[in-house]
Amino acid sequence: MNKITASIIAAATVAGAVRAGVPLNGLQGDGGIAFNPIAFPAGTYGEENQTVSAPQVGTWFTRLDSADIDWAAASASFSIAKRVELSYGYGWTDANKYGDDSISTHNVGAKLVLLQDGAFDLKWAPAVAVGAIYKHTDAATADALGLDKDGADFYAVATKLVGSAPVPVLLSAGVLYSDEVVNGVVGHGDYGFGWFGNVNLIPVSWLTVGAEYKSGIDADKVENHDYYDLHAAWFATPKLTLVGAYVNTGSKSGSKLGVGDGFVLSAQYQF
């Protein structure tokens, strides 16, 4: 990903300084939006000769009002040679209504960029990356449901910035192989495939608006509901991004498990 591309992704330049922007640290700490990773590595908005990126950190607070669940997360990530991303995310969930008043999760992620945006001088070529996230939860619900407390996500994702559109558009789609139950917070069952996608518009230099979708993994013992969110991110300063979103994780219906809908707030800082 060259510097011009990175600048547009970060919502262009203002007074000669690149402003903050995507990829954010997602809810699991990986470089993406909220639920989904994208193929651009975290912290790569800086200088061309930057070998190890400055770290970026992110915090999230999700209130799923209909399920009476509070979910908070904090994470840090950085990249090496704009090819390898390393991340760690910690999560805390209050699901007292369901017997778990304090669930802690730990997520350790790695992403490898196979192709950068516009590789081989082909303007239409997307960035392509593969990644994995090791996940652990201490949820008592895992024992009650016969689930494992450790598991992992494996994914492949392609991301393209369309700068020639009337406004820059970021498009991303990927496939996920996972054993997660409720994003790994509740536990881990059997592995299954899912897919995910993101669309983001950058109408002005200080704002991006978009949506993301994540299909539910069928973990055999539990089938997850599909997730989606609608979000807006304000690039408040060259280093600070503030995010507001509406999220819907579905409701428990038939064999599918969801935890309702609610609002999301996030603060992201790129050193």
CATH classification class: Mainly Beta
Strand residue percentage: over 45%
Order of strands across the main sheet: 5-6-7-8-9-10-11-12-13-15-16-18
Q: N-to-C terminal Cα separation, in Å?
A: 19 Å
Continuous helix count:
2
Q: Under CATH, the topology is which? A: Porin
Quick one: biggest sheet?
12 strands, antiparallel, barrel
Any descriptors?
single chain; mainly beta; Porin; 271 residues
Overview of the molecule:
The strands form four sheets. A twelve-stranded antiparallel beta barrel has the order 5-6-7-8-9-10-11-12-13-15-16-18. Strands 1-2 form a two-stranded antiparallel ribbon. Strands 3-4 form a two-stranded antiparallel ribbon. It has helices at residues 3-9, 140-145; strands spanning 13-14, 17-18, 24-25, 31-32, 56-64, 69-80, 84-95, 100-115, 127-137, 150-162, 169-181, 187-204, 207-214, 223-224, 227-235, 240-248, 256-257, 261-270. Strand 3 and strand 4 (31-32) form a beta hairpin. The chain is globular. With 271 residues, it is mainly beta. It has a single domain, classed as monomeric porin ompg (Porin), CATH 2.40.160. 5% of the residues lie in helices and 56% in strands. It starts with a helix and ends with a strand. It has two helices and 18 strands.
Layout of strands and helices, then pairs:
Layout (H helix, E strand, L loop, with lengths): L2 H7 L3 E2 L2 E2 L5 E2 L5 E2 L23 E9 L4 E12 L3 E12 L4 E16 L11 E11 L2 H6 L4 E13 L6 E13 L5 E18 L2 E8 L8 E2 L2 E9 L4 E9 L7 E2 L3 E10 L1
Parallel strand pairs: 14-17
Antiparallel strand pairs: 1-2, 3-4, 5-6, 5-18, 6-7, 7-8, 8-9, 9-10, 10-11, 11-12, 12-13, 13-15, 15-16, 16-18
